[in-house]
Amino acid sequence: MQLQAQDPSIMAEVARLLAGRTRDIRLKGELRRLFQERSWPRTAKVIRAWMTWVALLDVLTLGLNAILLPKVIVLSMLAPACILPPAALATAFVWRKPRAIGLQRASIIAGLFFILLSVALVGVSAGGEFHERHLNIMLFVAITAIIIFSIPLTWTVTVAAMALGLYLFFQLLNPSLETGSAVAAALFFASGIIATVVARRTMTILAQKGFLLELRDRSRVAELADANARLERLARTDPLTGIANRRWMMETLNHLWSAGMDSRGCAMLMCDIDEFKKLNDHLGHAEGDRCLVKVAGIIQSSVKRDRDHVARYGGEEFLIVLPGVDEGEAICMAERIRRSVEAASLPNPASRISPYVTLSIGVATQSSEEKIISPEQLQNQADAALYLAKQAGRNRVVLHHPDRIRQ
Question: Which of 32, 99, 188, 382 could join 27 via S-S bond, C-beta 3.0 to 4.6 A?
């Protein structure tokens, strides 16, 4: 599972669990599913490895017994010892990939039952000293499984009860042991197994707490990343108009030119609202702000291509960058913007040009035949063209040319 910031309800539950006592942690619902999904690969790997080694050691032990023990005892051990390897390997096979929770539970409990039964029957079949020895080995096998298998508590308790039940049953069948001694031995081992189950539960709770802490930390990291991204956007966005600001435009220009992208074919449009100071003085700054927002929206909606860029460059100035555009296309774009602003009929009653807001635009282009110039130089040319547009009476588009300025 790839951990990510979760939905608010899950993170609220994470916070609630972490605020309480560690021993009271209980994962439910989606959190429980996420934890199981997170821990399954490691749990499955441990179970597969344990089952494989138990099967291998059983075969090696049987071979060693065949060398060291009398043949009659070895033959008595052979049949029950053959139960263990198939049971262990079948369980390992089931845990090769995620399966239904019921199948996983049945496989681990059935597999351990037959493994423990095999170990016990080997001792019972051999008799004598082997009877008690193999029952103790059976309990040791059960305890190691309880310790290292990170499985639900109910499964662990089932395995523990199963091991103790088998131990007591076969001890009661031990002819060399009285009933009271068998029960006393079972009670003695029961205390150790119960302590092991409690320790396993504590380990599981600690693992769950670590999972909760990881979820919380990842959520906080994601929130911090989102906050930083918002701050970055705010730093590059004009707060009034919502379009890019001058800083963003300068970074964009530097990036475009450093990458060599269309620097041989690019146009810049410097736009300025005519008589804007008179609008502010006559109608107030609130109306001036409204005018800026409207004009910014008109300019932004007039720019259709994803690679075109618009920014508020100054108080009432807007800079438009059109990569890959020649002078004819740039002039058409500028005229479309100028006419759209004029057609919006935004009031500017104090203007000497028109009772409505108008726009003057200076255009500068760089064609593929011209020597490459810097973005600052191209911008200065657009500024010069805008200045001439203002001098020529405003509400017009002027194209910069090294030898002439054309309207």
Answer: 32
Whole-angstrom Cα Rg for the chain: 41
Q: Do 172 and 101 lie in a common domain?
A: yes
Task: Indicate whether 140 and 214 sit together in one domain.
Answer: yes
Which residue in 16, 48, 285 sits closest to 149, CA to CA?
48
The answer to whether residues 264 and 193 belong to one domain is no
- CA-to-CA distance for 47 and 203, rounded, in angstroms? 17
DSSP string, 304-332: -STT-EEEE-SSSEEEEEEET--HHHHHH
Helix or strand holding residue 362 (H, E): strand 359-366
What residue has token string 């039952």?
113
Q: What is the number of alpha carbons within 13 Å of residue 392 lying toward its C-beta? A: 18
Q: For residue 275, which of 216, 352, 370, 195 has the smallest C-alpha distance?
A: 352
Helix H or strand E encompassing 398: strand 397-399
Q: If we measure between CA atoms, which residue out of 153, 154, 139, 141 comes closest to residue 192? A: 139
Kindly state the tokens that stand for 187.
């009670």
Kindly state the tokens that stand for 90: 């079948």
Backbone angles phi, psi at 20, to 5 degrees: -90, -170
| CA–CA distance, 128 with 142 (Å, rounded to integer) | 22
Instruction: Tell me the CA distances in angstroms from 68 to 62, 65, 73, 74, 378, one per residue in order.
Output: 10, 5, 10, 9, 95
pLDDT of residue 337: 96
Least confident of 2-16, 36-50, 170-184: 2-16
Complete DSSP assignment for 263-279: TTSEEEEEEEETTHHHH
- Interval 337-371: pLDDT, tens: 999 999 999 999 999 999 999 999 999 998 766 77
The DSSP bridge partners found for residue 406 are: 399
Domain hosting 331: range is 246-399
DSSP string for 6-24: --HHHHHHHHHHHHS-GGG
For 31-59, what is each residue's pLDDT tens digit? Answer: 988 998 889 999 999 999 999 999 999 99
Contact 153, 204 (CB under 8 A): yes
Asked if residue 280 and residue 198 are part of one domain, the reply reads no
